[in-house]
Amino acid sequence: MAEPGAAGDHGMEPTPSLAMPKMTPMAGLSMAAALCLVAPAAETHASSRPYVDLVDFPYKEANWDRFYALEGHLMREFHDLCGVTYCQGVYANHVLLQFRCSVHAATGTVTECALVIAAGNLEVDAATGKVMPDNRTWACAVPLAPHTPVEALHAALGRRDALILPLPGTGRSVHDALLGCLGEGGSLAASHRRHP
After folding, report:
1. How do 131-141 and 189-194 pair as beta strands?
2. Distance CA 105, CA 113 (A)
3. Integer angstrom CA distances of residue 161 from 40, 75, 115
4. For 152-173, what is each residue's pLDDT tens digit?
């Protein structure tokens, strides 16, 4: 050992090392497994409310990618049907804007689903040069059998021709519901704005 004051010592006191408790490999694995299980469980029980958005079932954002893929699929299906069904009459450009479902968290069954549809026209006022909007939105209920499991909903709406095939346990299709909803002005709610 070098004596105090020797080259490289600079008169500094040695720093005591922090003693770390020894952990066996099995204890380390047990701790890691426990931490992995705590996060989803904490998110599941974080909300004591009985209903959640389908995106957040079985825990917050757990169904994010799958849900938005399903919504995109329904938007494409709607677009493909629109020209020969909904996109006629006063409005020729209906668009499916949003799809949402509520889930009873404890049972994993779907309580309600709705589609928001929008349509509109723009016209030019020849006297003033103003662009005149005429638009409308509809919120249409999806016909569901009581206590439809989340997986059954995904399977039914994720298939080809999902809008025209009957939903399980109902004998009705989303298309049937949309024809009634768009014709009646919206079964859940509707807003209509016409600007002079």
Report:
1. antiparallel
2. 15
3. 35, 12, 16
4. 999 999 999 999 999 999 999 9
Range 6-44 burial, b when 16+ CB lie within 10 A, else e: eeeeeeeeeeeeeeeeeeeeeeeeeeeeeeeeeeeeeeb
- Give the burial class of 73: count Cβ atoms within 10 A of its Cβ; 0-12 exposed, 13-18 middle, 19 or more buried: middle
Nearest of 137, 133, 124, 129 to residue 96 by alpha carbon = 137
Q: Residue 106 class from Cβ within 10 Å (0-12 exposed, 13-18 middle, 19+ buried)?
A: exposed
Helix (H) or strand (E) holding 62: none
Rounding to the nearest 10 degrees, give the CA dihedral for residues 168, 169, 170, 175. 0
Phi, psi of 173 (to 5 degrees): -105, 165
Tokens standing for residue 155: 């399977």
* pLDDT digits 0-9 by tens, 86-114: 887 788 889 999 999 999 999 999 999 99
> pTM of the full predicted structure?
0.70
Tokens 């090392």, located at residue: 17
Exposed/middle/buried for 169, CB within 10 Å: 0-12, 13-18, 19+?
middle
Structure-token match 């409308």, residue found: 136
Residues (pLDDT < 50) of the chain are 1-10, 12, 14-21, 23, 26-46, 186-196
Beta bridge partners of 110: 103, 148
